Amino acid sequence: EAQVTQNPRYLITVTGKKLTVTCSQNMNHEYMSWYRQDPGLGLRQIYYSMNVEVTDKGDVPEGYKVSRKEKRNFPLILESPSPNQTSLYFCASSALDTQYFGPGTRLTVL
Amino acid sequence: GENVEQHPSTLSVQEGDSAVIKCTYSDSASNYFPWYKQELGKGPQLIIDIRSNVGEKKDQRIAVTLNKTAKHFSLHITETQPEDSAVYFCAASIGSSNTGKLIFGQGTTLQVKP
Fold first, then answer.
1. Per the omega criterion (within 30 degrees of 0), is the bond before B8 cis?
2. Which residues pair with A101 in a beta bridge?
3. CA-based Rg of chain A, rounded to a whole angstrom?
4. How far apart are CA A100 and CA A25, in angstroms?
5. What is the least distance, in Å, from the CA of A62 to any CA of chain B?
6. Partners of A105 in the β-ladder
């Protein structure tokens, strides 16, 4: 089954404790993105990747890192999480324009 | 920067009525406009999309219209059903569609009352 998977689905952590949210797709897509969803703000792009080792900042990249060492994986790294990064995060992949979203990771930073 | 404005933020209709959600975009180079539906606890799913070379597209009860001159596009749902209740997002490509980048509207929470 074609899908985008994210782990973990829920995470509660404390300020400053490094964390990684994994994202994997099995559709051999070139493009992958990370979004955060906040009430009233819709989906805002954090980072995206056009292919292996090619990444670029989205609209809200501050406080986040990404890497794309393999085509199928695109982890999101928060080196020193802060409470304003409490949000719902989505990973997405696409061959060109139609994006397929993962189920989401709800992150709470205390 | 580029942006997409979506209205209304909430919409409540009676079952069987029509629902219309409108979006405007700022990037004149945008040429791909998808609509996503997000059900509770799930990720957004594409329900319909339109490219700049057409003005309207229909898929059963769902239709999308595009006015490139005015830079706005709309989602029309006819004969609404309770299972249409969800959050809907419009989006526009940043530049042409082969950049793989989209900018999303703020979302519309649609409630269909039985």
1. yes
2. A92
3. 13
4. 9
5. 17
6. A89
pLDDT tens for A62-93 read: 999 999 999 999 999 999 999 999 999 999 99
Per DSSP bridges, beta strands A87-94 and A105-109 are antiparallel
Q: What is the rounded distance in angstroms from the CA atom of residue A63 to the CA atom of residue A78?
A: 6
Are A103 and B1 an interchain contact pair (Cβ–Cβ within 8 Å)? no
What are φ and ψ of residue B60, in 5° steps? 55, -115
Give the phi and the psi of residue B39 in degrees, each rounded to 5. Answer: -85, 160
Contact predicate B20/B74, CB 8 Å: yes
Burial of A72 (0-12, 13-18, 19+ CB in 10 A): middle
Look at residues B67, B45, B47, B42 and name the one whose alpha carbon lies nearest to residue B56: B67
Q: How far apart are CA A60 and CA A79, in angstroms?
A: 15
Residue of A34, A69, A76, A73 whose CA lies nearest to A54: A69
Tell me the one-letter amino acid at B36: Y
Residues 8-67 of A with CB under 8 A from B: 30-31, 33, 35, 40-45, 48, 50, 58-59
Query: How many other C-beta atoms are found inside a 10 Å radius of the C-beta of residue A42?
Result: 21
Burial of B83 (0-12, 13-18, 19+ CB in 10 A): exposed
pLDDT tens per residue, range A2-50 = 899 999 999 999 999 999 999 999 999 999 999 999 988 899 999 999 9
